[in-house]
Amino acid sequence: MTNGNPQEVAMRIIWFRVRAALAGRGSDAGMSTSEYAMGTIAACAFAAVLYKVVTSEVVATALQSTIGKALDVPF
Known about the structure:
- 76% of the residues lie in helices and 0% in strands.
- It is built from three helices and no strands.
- The model has no long low-confidence stretch (mean pLDDT 84).
């Protein structure tokens, strides 16, 4: 810092302290253990529902029909 007005020096010191304090707040980019656990549970539940839907008779019939129509298209 340069020598100058005492008020200006004080404001610079305050500004640097506020900036340093706020810089630490944005560094929490990861998830905590409980957030990982909840995310894992949600992903497993979604996978279970998706598995039930995909392996259902209605979806299997629809997929077979769509694939059969696609294979029967003349080139």
